[in-house]
Amino acid sequence: MGWYDEKGPLSAEAFDPRPKETSGISLYRSKYKSIQDVSAGGPSKQGYYVAVLRAVDLRKYGIEVVPRPTPNDPGHVELPALTSYNRRTPEADELKVRLAKLCVRVEGPFPPTTD
Question: With a threshold of 0.90, does the pTM exceed it?
Fold first, then answer.
């Protein structure tokens, strides 16, 4: 989608919620899921990059990280302050910029998937 170029910074738009993310954008804890597992998480014709963040950094800036385990992913968490409902608000834009700045590194590219 053009959100990341290995020569430049990660775009804040990389954190734009998908339509189904109504209760918060999804993140995955590395204790439970590898970066390779995350990169294979859904269909993508373009392929994937994985942004790595640290929960301690998010919490330091008051960003709530809520555990929402699923049967297939006990390490699934969400950021309830950023949803598909509020994605176009100034507050959401500010949060996306903060997340991009807090990104420790970006892994990838990972190949496209078709599932």
Answer: no
